[in-house]
Amino acid sequence: MTEGDLGQRQFRPTFWASLVTLAALITLVALGSWQWQRLGEKEALIAELKARIATPAASLPVDLSDPEAIRFLKVNLVGRYLHDKEMRLTNRVRDKVVGLHIVTPFELTDGRVILVDRGWVPLNLESPESRPDSLLEGPREVTVLLRAGGFSGPEFLRPVNDPLKNTFH
Q1: Could you report the per-residue pLDDT of 27-77, keeping only the tens digit for each?
Q2: How big, in percent rounded to 5, are the helix, strand and coil portions of the chain?
């Protein structure tokens, strides 16, 4: 090929290359549009959370059957922790340290039981004996944000819980 040949070349895409490029472009635009929509949904969720957190705490409703009505509702609870029924949510990472969330049932004075996420602990504090300060005894008053639901992914991806080892996902 001589230097003069390079100046005479023209860009002529084939039909299939053009079709694939067009399909890829449509897909990328659709994905970008979906991301903008998700941004709006996330911003609305954050605004709802901030508004619910800013409200004064109420008493726990008797009817908890509507998850949307109680989502992020700030409530005061009076009762006691059932430390002997504590659960551990495994595979939680915080600041690049592997740990777990401690979930403790909280028995209300009216007999109902609410699960309270007590927070993250590193693996070396998994056993209750290693964190005696967290084992609060007797009647307590706590303020919590209610959440409903659980695993929301495809059922075939749900990890298996192991109640005998007291580990849940």
Answers
A1: 999 999 999 999 999 999 899 889 888 989 988 888 888 887 888 889 999
A2: 40, 30, 30
Question: Would you give the distance in Å from CA 157 to the centre of its chain?
Answer: 15
- What distance in Å separates the CA atoms of residue 73 and residue 88, rounded to the nearest whole number? 24
Residue 63 token pair: 């009817």
Asked whether the beta carbons of 53 and 74 are under 8 A apart, the reply is yes
Pairing of strands 140-145, 74-81: antiparallel
pTM above 0.70, yes or no: no
* The pair of three-digit structure tokens given for residue 103, joined into one six-digit string: 């979930």
Which stretches within the chain are classed as H helix?
Answer: 3-8, 15-54, 67-70
DSSP code of 73? Answer: -
CA nearest 144: which of 76, 82, 51? 76
